[in-house]
């Protein structure tokens, strides 16, 4: 495990986008990812999709984890996806969504390019393993 | 250089943010080919003004950087920022949290903000950071700001890759003995007392000024190296006193409240004054040359140590030697001699030829 981390450090952006002001979950994920040996960039609260795109491009992250509790995922996530495409960063960035996402919206998000949706109660290890297995080869 | 690297360099020079980001990643990861990339970028770099900012955790560095960058942007300059944060010694993981405070510049792609983690490397981090500066410089940034926690020797090395070094302290950060201690207080060209709306600001400013006053005098008398160098080169520095006077920078102390932006103009002016001093005194060139000398040494040493590792592997690994030493069959000096012998022989052969 640690040998892998030495070979290539996985960089993640944990993004809070939109108006919801609750980021305890994002903090917990950031810490768990850090303890898994990832480099985590946390966006802070109330970010616009363009800011998330800017951060993802400049930091050249492998993974974006978007945390949304407000129900605005159907408007915000597509904007992030489009922004990444604009900078040729969509193809090799793994996009994850976490938070409160109704089942009927999951498929739609995945069609948009989200790799996986992690709802409340997902074991942390499951998320970490998913990132390890699916972080894009570069 | 492979086609992929050529393309990356070309895209970077052409203004692609993605290419710049990817090049820095390759530099950070020490990916194959990163050296070719830095080599190719070197000739395009050299015009950016590089500022290093350090200070203890919580002194307000990120907020200050945000406001300083905003000021440069208002003047139409483009800026690159490299923020270095520590990584966990146990897992290698890190939370890179300085980006949050870049609130004044969000959505402005002409501010290229990049977080770097220490990744547990000591010497290598400063090389990686200065290579990343080269990339931002070649990309065409007018200013590059390096921000790091001034906790240890390694962090000091990083800010010293800058032309001007700003050291941040907050009011009431320790008694006057702290000011006597060696470390980050010795490397500042500009000192900033941030959070200057707090109690104790006047005292901290006075202590810093006293320290600067004390340091400038003894150093002038001790620092005779320049005279000797100048004399050796035949320069006319017989009456060196005035020349020395002119070529000495006395660090300035600036008060700021980064959250409100108070004092940022003073800081920018102080940095501009230091820049002018560096250019007019010829120190800029001198500093760059010293830096490159250190960098060349570091690179050669690291290459040599790779060769040595290979030599160990070829001879069955360092553990076998260690076991033999522990068994008193041989001793560390003999082993070292033995391992280095082929290299020494090679060098002596070339000398003879």
Automatic annotation (TrEMBL), chain A:
<dbReference type="GO" id="GO:0016853">
    <property type="term" value="F:isomerase activity"/>
</dbReference>
<keyword id="KW-0479">Metal-binding</keyword>
<dbReference type="GO" id="GO:0046872">
    <property type="term" value="F:metal ion binding"/>
</dbReference>
<protein>
    <submittedName>
        <fullName>Methylmalonyl-CoA mutase</fullName>
    </submittedName>
</protein>
<dbReference type="Pfam" id="PF02310">
    <property type="entry name" value="B12-binding"/>
</dbReference>
<feature type="domain" description="B12-binding">
    <location>
        <begin position="9"/>
        <end position="138"/>
    </location>
</feature>
<keyword id="KW-0846">Cobalamin</keyword>
<dbReference type="InterPro" id="IPR006159">
    <property type="entry name" value="Acid_CoA_mut_C"/>
</dbReference>
<dbReference type="InterPro" id="IPR036724">
    <property type="entry name" value="Cobalamin-bd_sf"/>
</dbReference>
<keyword id="KW-0413">Isomerase</keyword>
<dbReference type="GO" id="GO:0031419">
    <property type="term" value="F:cobalamin binding"/>
</dbReference>
<keyword id="KW-0170">Cobalt</keyword>
<dbReference type="InterPro" id="IPR006158">
    <property type="entry name" value="Cobalamin-bd"/>
</dbReference>
<comment type="similarity">
    <text>Belongs to the methylamine corrinoid protein family.</text>
</comment>
UniProtKB/TrEMBL annotation, chain B:
<protein>
    <submittedName>
        <fullName>Methylmalonyl Co-A mutase-associated GTPase MeaB</fullName>
    </submittedName>
</protein>
<dbReference type="Pfam" id="PF03308">
    <property type="entry name" value="MeaB"/>
</dbReference>
<dbReference type="InterPro" id="IPR003593">
    <property type="entry name" value="AAA+_ATPase"/>
</dbReference>
<comment type="similarity">
    <text>Belongs to the SIMIBI class G3E GTPase family. ArgK/MeaB subfamily.</text>
</comment>
<keyword id="KW-0143">Chaperone</keyword>
<keyword id="KW-0342">GTP-binding</keyword>
<keyword id="KW-0547">Nucleotide-binding</keyword>
<keyword id="KW-0378">Hydrolase</keyword>
<feature type="domain" description="AAA+ ATPase">
    <location>
        <begin position="47"/>
        <end position="172"/>
    </location>
</feature>
<dbReference type="GO" id="GO:0003924">
    <property type="term" value="F:GTPase activity"/>
</dbReference>
<dbReference type="GO" id="GO:0005525">
    <property type="term" value="F:GTP binding"/>
</dbReference>
<dbReference type="InterPro" id="IPR005129">
    <property type="entry name" value="GTPase_ArgK"/>
</dbReference>
<dbReference type="InterPro" id="IPR027417">
    <property type="entry name" value="P-loop_NTPase"/>
</dbReference>
<dbReference type="InterPro" id="IPR052040">
    <property type="entry name" value="GTPase/Isobutyryl-CoA_mutase"/>
</dbReference>
């Amino acid at each position: 495990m640690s040998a892998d981390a030495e070979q290539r450090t996985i960089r993640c952006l944990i993004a809070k986008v939109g108006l919801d002001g609750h980021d305890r979950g994002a903090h917990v994920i950031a810490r768990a990812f850090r303890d898994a040996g990832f480099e985590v960039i946390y966006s802070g609260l109330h970010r616009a999709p363009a800011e998330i795109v800017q951060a993802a491009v400049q930091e050249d992250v492998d993974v974006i984890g978007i945390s949304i509790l407000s129900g605005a995922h159907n408007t915000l996530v597509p904007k992030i996806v489009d922004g990444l495409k604009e900078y040729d960063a969509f193809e090799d960035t793994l996009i994850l969504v976490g938070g409160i996402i109704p089942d009927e919206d999951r498929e739609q998000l995945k069609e948009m390019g989200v790799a996986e949706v992690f709802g409340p109660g997902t074991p942390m290890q499951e998320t970490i393993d998913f990132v390890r297995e699916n972080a894009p080869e570069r | 250089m492979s086609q992929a690297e050529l393309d990356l360099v070309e895209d970077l020079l052409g203004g692609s943010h993605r290419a710049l980001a990817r090049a820095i990643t390759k530099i950070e990861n020490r990916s194959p080919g990163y050296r070719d990339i830095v080599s190719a970028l070197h000739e395009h770099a050299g015009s950016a003004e590089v500022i290093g900012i350090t200070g203890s955790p919580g002194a307000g560095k990120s907020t200050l950087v945000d406001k300083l960058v905003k000021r440069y942007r208002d003047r139409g300059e483009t800026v690159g920022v490299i923020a270095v944060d520590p990584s966990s010694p146990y897992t290698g993981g890190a939370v890179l949290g300085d980006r949050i405070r870049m609130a004044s510049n969000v959505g402005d792609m002409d501010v290229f903000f990049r977080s770097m983690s220490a990744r547990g490397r000591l010497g290598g981090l400063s090389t990686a950071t200065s290579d990343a500066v080269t990339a931002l410089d070649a990309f065409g940034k007018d200013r590059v700001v390096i921000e790091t926690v001034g906790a240890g020797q390694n962090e000091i090395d990083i800010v010293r890759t800058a032309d001007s070094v700003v050291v941040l302290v907050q009011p009431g950060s320790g008694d006057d003995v702290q000011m006597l201690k060696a470390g980050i207080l010795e490397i500042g060209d500009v000192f900033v007392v941030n959070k200057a709306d707090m109690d104790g600001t006047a005292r901290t400013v006075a202590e810093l000024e006293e320290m600067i006053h004390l340091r400038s005098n003894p150093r002038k008398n001790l620092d005779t190296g320049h005279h000797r160098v100048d004399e050796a080169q035949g320069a006319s520095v017989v009456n060196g006193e005035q020349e020395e006077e002119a070529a000495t920078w006395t660090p300035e102390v600036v008060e700021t409240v980064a959250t409100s932006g108070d004092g940022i103009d003073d800081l920018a002016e102080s940095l501009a004054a230091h820049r002018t001093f560096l250019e007019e005194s010829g120190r800029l060139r001198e500093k760059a040359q010293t830096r490159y000398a250190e960098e060349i040494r570091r690179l050669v040493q690291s290459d040599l140590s790779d060769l040595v590792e290979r030599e160990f592997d070829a001879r069955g690994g360092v553990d076998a030697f260690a076991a033999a030493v522990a068994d008193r069959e041989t001793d560390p000096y003999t082993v070292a001699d033995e391992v280095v012998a082929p290299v020494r022989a090679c060098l002596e052969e070339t000398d003879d030829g």
